[in-house]
Amino acid sequence: MLQIIRVDIVDGQTFDIELSNGHLILFDTRQLMEKDNSYEILRNLEVLPRPNTDGRSIFWRDGPRLELDEIMALLNWQESN
Questions:
Q1: Is 3's pLDDT higher than 80?
Q2: Is the pLDDT assigned to residue 38 strictly greater than 80?
Q3: In terms of Cα–Cα distance, which of 45, 47, 48, 67 is closest to 56?
Q4: How far apart are CA 39 and CA 62, in angstroms?
Q5: What whole-number distance in Å separates Cα of residue 38 and Cα of residue 59?
Q6: What domain of life does the UniProt record list for this protein's source (predicted)?
Q7: Which of 10, 13, 50, 62 falls between 20 and 30 A from 25, CA-CA?
Q8: Confidence category of residue 12, pLDDT binned at 50, 70, 90
Q9: Which range has highest mean pLDDT (7-11, 35-39, 59-63)?
């Protein structure tokens, strides 16, 4: 089962996500915030705080959570547009 091993923030707005299969994902969160209002709390931050991971999602304490399946779906959506 695919899992998130590590997540960091690059350039203040981009996730650097390492997966258990060795792949790395650079995920631009600005598009996420434009697409989904549940991430509005993060929009006003100049630099995102480093999130945590439980292997299946990326999350902030007392903040939003982004599931791995959702990340993969958003990446597919970005590729098709």
A1: yes
A2: no
A3: 67
A4: 12
A5: 12
A6: Bacteria
A7: 62
A8: confident
A9: 7-11
Residue 10: C-alpha distances to residues 19, 48, 50, 51, 80 (Å): 16, 9, 10, 12, 24
- 18 touches 59 (CB < 8 A): no
Rg (CA), the chain: 12
Q: 3-class SS at 61?
A: coil
**pLDDT > 70 in the chain, percent:** 84
**The predicted structure's pLDDT at residue 31:** 72
CA dist., res. 16 & res. 24, Å (int): 7
d(C-alpha 9, C-alpha 38), whole Å: 19
The domain segmentation of the chain, as residue ranges, is 4-80
